[in-house]
């Protein structure tokens, strides 16, 4: 089995494990100390969604592209943190945890007691799997880079090339995910 097949399997395993982790964290109560900060993040997200420009006939592609840019800007930050050797292993689960709690707060504020139903619906949407796959790609490659740094003290040139390609592939998948997510959001306005 070649390196690509091994890495591809690892990418999908990490992505699916991430979905399970988010579903688990959704069941946890948001810690009271973090609630005010996460509620302000949730409010900013809700305000951003409400500010999407629309026309009388409904959303336009301008609306979709505008929201895509906002979503992608946020997701690229998570991608880069997840890709960083050593840091990604800590940053990725923290990002998933915060995302799950913000999702819970947004869903609770908007749908009340039906928040879990709505939150689980988000986990079934295509953009969720695309985002988690994109993050998983760079996380796995960042972990491999970390392994090389610990084991050898440097990263082999062939892995540097693979690492760069994985960042590009991840960014392409994130762009598609942001476009899909923006379309899903705008079409529901």
How does this model look, in words?
There is one protein chain. This protein is mainly alpha-helical. The protein has seven helices and two strands. It has helices at 3-26, 35-50, 61-83, 87-111, 115-123, 126-151, 157-187, and strands at residues 54-55, 58-59. The protein has a two-stranded antiparallel sheet with strand order 1-2. β1 (54-55) and β2 form a beta hairpin. α6 packs antiparallel against α7 (157-187).
Task: Report the β-strand fraction as a percent range.
Answer: under 5%
**What general outline do the C-alpha atoms trace?**
globular
Largest sheet strand order: 1-2
Radius of gyration: 18 Å
Q: Give me the strand/helix succession.
A: HHEEHHHHH
Stretches where pLDDT is under 50 for at least 5 consecutive residues are: none
Strand count: 2
Distance between the termini: 47 Å
Structural class computed from helices and strand pairing: mainly alpha
